[in-house]
């Protein structure tokens, strides 16, 4: 059984996390019984279950990129304003 990343697990809702843990337990049991044909089906269910959390993680990353871009733009604007003010003081 393949675990999802800690970041993805951290973004699972409570009911999703409970189901994820239950499916992992079932999968580990099936592996111990060498029922790999059934493990494949359980793993597919886990992959489907974690898709919303993966999308939430991607959105957090996109939001962080937008925030960084806005910060850098405001910093560049402040720098331009400071240079403009210095030019006015020289005159």
From TrEMBL:
Bias kind Basic and acidic residues: ranges: 59-69
Superkingdom classification of source: Bacteria
Region Disordered, residue ranges: 59-91
Protein name listed in UniProt: Spo0E like sporulation regulatory protein
């Amino acid at each position: 059984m393949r675990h999802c990343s800690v970041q993805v697990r951290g973004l699972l809702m409570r009911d999703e996390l409970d189901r994820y843990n239950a499916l992992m337990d079932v999968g580990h049991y099936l592996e111990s019984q060498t029922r790999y044909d059934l493990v494949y089906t359980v793993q597919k269910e886990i992959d489907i279950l974690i898709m919303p959390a993966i999308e939430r993680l991607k959105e957090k990353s996109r939001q962080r990129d937008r925030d960084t871009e806005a910060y850098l733009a405001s910093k560049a604007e402040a720098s331009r304003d400071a240079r403009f003010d210095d030019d006015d003081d020289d005159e």
